Amino acid sequence: QVQLVESGGDSVQAGGSLRLSCVASRDILRYFCMGWFRQAPGKEREGVASIASDGSTSYADSVKGRFTISQGNAENTLYLQMNSLNPDDSATYYCAADFRNQFCSWSLDFRYRGQGTQVTVSS
C-alpha cells in the first residue's frame, strides 16, 4: 500500500510562487513514476508534471517553464516548485504515484494519489 501526503498549498497573488511537498509512506521514488495533477471545481482532472525513477521529467504545456518537479534528498519526498502563478493555476493539487515507470508521463492515469492540497491564486 502506498500512502502519499501533500503539504504546502496556500493562497497567493498572481505572479507569486509556492512549493508543494509530498511524503510517501515508503521509499518508492527510486522505483515508481511520481507526479502531480490538479483539479479545479467543475473541471476535469489535469495532469501537471511527472518524474520517472531515472530522473527524467515531463510537463503539461500549461505549466512548462513555470513549474519544476523534483525529488528531495530524502528518498521518499517529492516537490513541485510553482512560479509565476496565475488564477488558472487555482486547484486542488494531488501527489501521485504509479509502478508503471515505463509509461511515466505527466498525462499518466496514476494508480495512487494523496488527499490533495489547495492552491488559490488571486488576481
Determine the strand fraction and express it as a percent band.
over 45%
How many beta-strand runs? 11
Rg over CA atoms = 13 Å
Number of helices: 0
Largest sheet: 7 strands, mixed
The run of helices and strands is EEEEEEEEEEE
- State the oligomer: single chain
* Proportion in helices: under 10%
Shape: globular
Note poorly predicted spans.
none
Distance between the termini: 40 Å
SSE-based structural type? mainly beta
- Mean pLDDT across all residues, rounded? 95
Your description of this structure?
With 123 residues, the chain is an all-beta fold. The protein is 0% helix and 46% strand. It is built from no helices and 11 strands. The strands form 2 sheets. Strands 2, 4, 5, 6, 9, 10 and 11 form a 7-stranded mixed β-sheet that branches. A hairpin with a 5-residue loop joins strand 5 and strand 6. It starts with a strand and ends with a strand.
